[in-house]
Design a protein that fits this description.
Layout lengths: L4 E7 L4 H8 L5 E5 L3 H13 L3 E4 L7 H14 E8 L10 H20 L7 E5 L11 H8 L6 H6 L5 H24 L4 E7 L5 H9 L1 H10 L8 H12 L10 E4 L3 H11 L1
Helix pairs in contact: 1-10, 3-4, 4-7, 5-7, 8-9
Length: about 270
């Protein structure tokens, strides 16, 4: 009988961090997904040419039925080693509901769906953001962030935000809270759930934000102890470790990959 493949599933695989995560996993079988069939096909073609064992499937991660199709496809191909969820939008998307839905609601849809595939040694790695750490704990909105699919959650959170950048920060705090919420459930299966919070990473999405806020991005770089922006590979290497069995006792926690800058950002906010 042929042994079942251990699969790493990467959402947002066509993006900078998603592709970098794929490239750290040449010894693994990959399933890559993104919003459009065209993006998925291009990603699979590139990785195939580089010698990867990879298959792809498009998925609208905000659509519960589409997420179910994704998990059914994964189940048909092997067993789940890891879900690496990098898909999302930044605060440059001006629609508050869209930011909340893509960055938080969709994350919970994926966590719930992939829980059904999780087994001993599986892991879910969810991308948050260093800016999640700029949102203080508050029971008035944390309950809504922890339960984003509830009918009044978006309205509750919206009362505390003034723009899409702030909604992004709140949604990413919600991702941190989802890992805490699901740790016991995943842990009962011997599986882990971890978040990773990148800082300013030089991807196409981040560079667009930099073009819109050049002075702000310059200040953040100057405030970074390591005096540089991050690269997609900086994040992918951490995720590669977290997926591996070397991280077997790490769960329900967040790893900041920000060059140390969030502590200085919070100081600047306090002094403003």
């Amino acid at each position: 009988m042929k042994a079942s493949k251990n699969l790493i599933v990467i959402t947002g695989a066509a993006g900078g961090i998603g592709m970098a995560c794929a490239r750290t996993s040449k010894d693994q079988s990959l399933i890559v997904t993104d919003y459009s069939q065209e993006q998925v096909d291009k990603t699979v073609e590139v990785l195939n040419q580089e010698g990867f064992d990879v298959k792809g499937i498009p998925c609208d991660i905000t659509d519960k039925k589409d997420v179910e199709k994704l998990t059914q496809f994964v189940a048909s191909q092997g067993t789940l080693k890891a879900l690496v969820h990098t898909a999302g939008v930044s605060g440059t998307v001006t629609d508050l509901k869209k930011v909340f839905t893509i960055d938080l609601v969709a994350t919970e849809l994926l966590v719930d769906a992939f829980y059904e595939l999780a087994e001993q040694g599986s892991a879910a790695i969810l991308l948050s953001s260093m800016m999640a750490h700029a949102v203080p704990p508050n029971e008035d909105y944390d309950e809504a962030l922890t339960n984003p699919q509830e009918s009044d959650s978006f309205e509750t959170v919206s009362k505390f935000v003034n723009n899409s950048d702030q909604m992004y920060n709140f949604a990413k705090r919600g991702v941190l809270l989802l890992s805490h919420k699901n740790a016991d459930r995943w842990g009962a299966k011997g599986a882990r759930i971890v978040t990773v919070s990148p800082g300013v990473i030089e991807t196409a999405m981040a560079m667009k934000a930099a073009e819109e806020h050049p002075e702000r991005m310059k200040k953040i770089k100057q405030a970074t102890p390591l005096k540089r922006n991050g690269t997609a590979e900086d994040v992918a290497d951490v995720i590669h470790f977290l997926v591996s069995d070397a991280a077997r006792f790490i769960t329900a926690t967040d790893i900041l990959v920000d060059g140390g800058v969030i502590h200085n950002i919070k100081k600047m906010q306090t002094n403003m």
